[in-house]
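Example complex used in Figure S2.
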Amino acid sequence: MTSPGVLEQVDVPTPEAGPGEVLLRVGAVGACHSDLHVLDAPEGMFPIPITLGHEIAGTVDTVGPAVDGWSPGNRAAVYGIIGCGHCRACLRGHENQCKLVPLGGIGISRDGGLAEYVVVPASRLLNVGDMDLTQAAPLTDAGLTPYHAIELAREKLRPGTTCVVIGIGGLGHMAVQILVATTAVRIVAVDTSVAALDLASRMGAHDVVQAGPEAVDKIRAIVGPPPDGADVVLDVVGAQPTLDTARQVVATGGQLLLIGLAGGTLPVRPVAGEPPTIPLETSVQVPFWGTQAELQEVIALAKGGQLHADVQTFPLEQAPEAYEALRRGEIHGRAVIVP
Ligand code: FEH
Ligand code: ZN
Ligand code: ZN
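Predicted assembly (339 residues):
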């Protein structure tokens, strides 16, 4: 991003690994909707110029001073968040809740992976062995973000409960697989696209509902009428229609996880005369990315063949086109740039 909203390919010097850092040759980097938010953000919110790309996997090229455990040729996925490392959240391993650094990360507050090379702290690397790097990269965000959200709802995701996943895109199709691999819940997939719903069925969703005026009734026919309903709803879109659907199908005592950042709002008005906007005892959370420990578990699911990203690859020079296709909603699964 060379100026606010401008994504262009320019030549920059190959970065060098400093103490504790590794120079990684980028094998693959996912194109995330959040990169569009970074591009569209008001000036001053993110450093400019900056190389975007926060969903990275690659091969170690050189290691900087004081780095142990990594050597040239190792293949790794990159945990993208860089918190302060010493606040009460970071010390507990929740760098996604860092109390000092609001949005610290590779491709966010420092140069990322939309390039042939990227320098990362060695502490952010997780070994992926011989895994295809176009599979490893999406795990670090498209896989980790829904995995973290599902972890937050683990208590509700009991055998025999239902989970509604709204939006079967880059993150949603991974969410379905993670639910299949780690729970015994009934999965209801919701999307506007029949192709996305077919993908959800192939990945193990038990029911599919096409988004539209009848979606709430169709979902209700599966999850039951109020005060029953879906025990967990993952809104992976976060637009007004999806948030409205989510709050109309969640059960009393359920859990709403707002993962998508499309700008919708969710009125939270407890029952007081007017009908409540969400049922009693229902919790609402806005998960953010995930923890490094959770990324290790996501990689284990992939290595075990239980998590596979449906990727569409683009060469580096076509990165702007990939992001425009993402903006137009033309990407099914995850767009991955291969420098
Ligand atoms: C990345 C950068 C900034 C905001 C949000 C994000 C998410 O895509 C991380 O999963
Ligand atoms: Zn992202
Ligand atoms: Zn911190």
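The two ends are 17 Å apart (CA to CA). Residues 32, 34, 54-55, 141 surround zinc ion (ligand 2) (CB under 6 Å).
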